[in-house]
Fold these 2 entries.
Entry 1:
Amino acid sequence: ASKYETGDSKKTVLDSGYSDDAGNERATFLILCRDEDVYELLETVQNLEDRFNSKYNYDYTFLNNVPFSKDFIYLLASHIPSGTLNFGSVAESHWQYPSFINQTQAQIVRQNSAHFPYGDSESYRHMCRYFSGFFYKHPFLQQYQYYWRVEPGVKFYCDVNYDVFKFMNSHGRKYGFVLSLFDYRDTLPTLWDHVKDFMVEKGITNPPLIDLVKNNNVYESYNLCHFWSNFEIADLSIFRNEEYEELFQYLDGKGGFYYERWGDAPIHTMAMSLFLQKHDLHWFNDIGYYHAPYLQCPQESATFLKNRCSCNPDDDFSYDDLSCTSHFLDIMGNA
Ligand code: GDP
Ligand code: MN
C-alpha cells in the first residue's frame, strides 16, 4: 500500500522550468539506490537542488537492481521541481554472476573476508562490477554525454555557481573527482598483476598517467591510489569505447570482482591511468562534499565565502596522509 500516492505515480517527466541560465549539456545525475534509501536521498537531492541544480535543471537517473516502489517514484517526483526524472531497473544479466564464476568458491571467499570492508557481501560485489562494466550501457544513459554520480546521504556544503557539465565540455575534461584515497590492499591483491599483463598483451607502454597508480619506475606494485567514485562528474565516452571494454572484459574474466573484492573506484582509476591524458582530469576542489567518513572543504577563504560554504575547512581530508590528492597534484605538476 502506498503512503504517499495520491494521483499519477508515473509523474516521471515534469514540466521543465527552463530559464535563460538552465544547463544545456546532455547530462544527468546518476543515483543507484534502493527503496529504503528514499529519505536519506530526499535530503541529498534537496541539498543538491539548493546548491546547484535549481539553477540548471539537469535530469536525474535513478537505477535499482529491482524495480522502484511507487512511493519512491512519487516522493522523488514531488520533491524535484524540474527536469526529467528517469527511474530504471538494472538488466538482470548486469547484476548476476557471469557463467565462468564458481559460486561455491565465491562464497568461500566471502566467508574468509570479513576483515576488510564489505568483504563478506555478495550484493556489494555485484554493485562494484555494475559500476565497472555496465552502468554506462543502461538504455536511460544513452541520451547523455555526462553524468554526475550521487549517493543517498552525501552532503554538498558549498554553492556550485557554474554549470559543471559545461565546464567539463568547454575545458575538454573527461573525468572529475573530489576526494581520492588509498585502498585496502586486501580487496585487490592480484589486480595490478592483471593490469600489467593486459598492458603487455595490448602493447600499452608508458601511458602518461601511469605514475598515478604505480609505486615506482619498474611497475612493481599498485600504490592503491584511486579517485573515490561515490562522486564522479565524467564523460561517458571514457567507458563507451573499445579499449575500456577490452580492459573490463579482461579483468572481469580474471574473476576478481568475486574471488577478491575489486571496487569500481580502483577499476575506474586504472582505466584513467591507462587511457587518459593529464589534461583530461579535473579536481573539483571548489566543491564542498561529504561522504562518510571523509569531507572535502575548500581551503581558500575567497572560495569559501563566495560559495557560502558551511563545512569546517580544518576537517578537510584532501591533504590527509590517507588521501591520494597530494600525489595526484605531484603527478599533474610534472605535466
Ligand atoms: P560505499 O560507499 O562503498 O560504502 O558503498 P555504498 O553502500 O554507499 O554503495 C554504493 C552505491 O551503490 C550507493 O549509491 C548505494 O545506494 C548503491 N548500492 C549498493 N548496494 C546496492 C544494492 O544491492 N542495490 C541497489 N539498488 N543499490 C546498491
Ligand atoms: Mn557510499
Entry 2:
Amino acid sequence: MNVPVPAASSPGAVRSPASQAPPGTALELDRAHVFHSWSAQGSLQPLTIAGGLGCEVWDDTGRLYLDFSSQLVNINIGHQHPRVVAAIAEQAHLLTTIAPGHANLTRGRAAQLITERAPDGMDKVFFTNGGADANENAMRMARLHTGRSKILSAYRSYHGNTGSAVVATGDWRRIPNEFAHGHAHFFTPYLFRSDFWATTPEEECARALEHLARVVECEGPASIAAILLETVPGTAGVLTPPPGYLAGVREIADKHGILLILDEVMVGFGRTGHWFAFDAHDVRPDLVTFAKGVNSGYVPAGGVIIDAPVAATFDDRVFPGGLTYSGHPLAMAAIVGTLETMADEKIVENARAVGAEHIGPGLRALADAHPVIGEVRGSGVFWALELVADQETRAPIAPAVIGAVKQGCLDRGLLPFVAENRLHVVPPCVVTPAEVARALAVYDEVLTEVEAAL
Ligand code: PLP
C-alpha cells in the first residue's frame, strides 16, 4: 500500500499524491457511477479528496486544503489519527465481523467508555450504523416504553434520512414525507430571527417554552411518547439554546410522562468543548443518540444511550429491533481507539480552549470588520457566521453570495461548511491556534472580496 507521508504545509500547497491513478480518474468514475446525496445529479462537480492527515486533506493532484468542515462535522479527532488507524488494523487482524448477539471484548469496552461519559444510570448502549438509525431506534424505544405514538421535534432540525428520522426532521428534507403520521413540530429558540418577537434570551426562552407547552396541550399530552431535540441544532445554524430552555423542556415532558431524547449526533464527543453538549445545560435526557464524533467516522457507527427505566422495559420483554452490523468490531475498535486517545491527549479540552481563546475572539473581530456578518454564534469547535445582506433588516445574503464564499474559500485552500446563508466554522477538535489563524485570514479575504461585489 502507498501511504502518504505527512509534511508541514500551508493551505493551497501541494503534496505528492498517494494515488496510483492519473489525476481526474476519481472524478470521472464518480460522474459515471456514483449517485450523490441531497443533490440534483446533473450539475455536480465534487472535489476529489485523495488523502488526509490531522486538519488537512489533499486532492488527487496533491493540492492541500485545511478542513474546516470536518467532513459533515464528523471528524473530531482529525484525519488519520495513528492510534485510531492502529486500533482498527489490530482488530481487523483478529476479527472483522460478528453478529450482534455475541459478547465481545471490544464491543463491551466501547459501550463502557461511552456510558462512563453519560449521566449516572445511563449504563446501556444500543449500537447502530449511524445517526439516523440511532434516532429511529430511540423513537421506537420511546414508543414501546410509553405505549404512545407521537413524537414532537423542532422545525429547525435534522435527524437523519430514514423513515421516522426524516419525518422528525423539520427542514426542507422532510417535505416528501409531509403526510406521515405520528409526528408534530414546534419552534425552538432562535433569538436572531425570533419567532416570538423576543428581544432578550430570557424572553426568547420563556416564550419558546410557553409555545411548546401549548403545542403539547393541542397535540394531546397522553398521545406523546417523546420530545426529540438536537441539544444544539447544528445544520439549522448552531443554535445554542438560552440558559434554562432545555431544563424547561424537561419540566414540560415530566409533567406529562413524556420522554426526552437528545440528539447528540453532531454535537457529542467534544464538538462544543464538552463530552456531551448537554453537559453545559441543566438537563438529564432519557435517551441520547450519537454517531459521528464517537469514532470520528473512521468506521460507520452510532447508537442510543439508554436510561435505566427505559432499559428495564426490555428486561423481560423483547426489544423487536436489531441490525446485522450493530456493534461491528471494526467500528467498536475505532470507538475504543478514539475515546481513549481523546481522553489521553485532552482533545475535548483543546476544543474548548481553542474555541474560547482563538475561534470566538477571531470571528468576533471579523464581525467588527465585515458588515456582511450579522451574528457570530457557537462554542468549542462549533460556530456559525450568519451572513446578511443588510444589518438592519437581517435579510439573509442571496444563495449566489454564499456560493461565492464557498468558492473563495476553496480557491484559497480551505474546505468550508456552508448552509443556507451561513458559514459554519467547524474544524476538527484537534485544531491548533496556528490553523485557526490561517482560516481566519482566508475568511477575512473572502468576505472582503464578497462585500466588494455586493
Ligand atoms: N442527527 C443529527 C443532529 C445530524 O447532524 C445528523 C447528520 O448530520 C444525523 C442525525 C444523521 O446522521 P447519519 O447521517 O449518520 O445518519
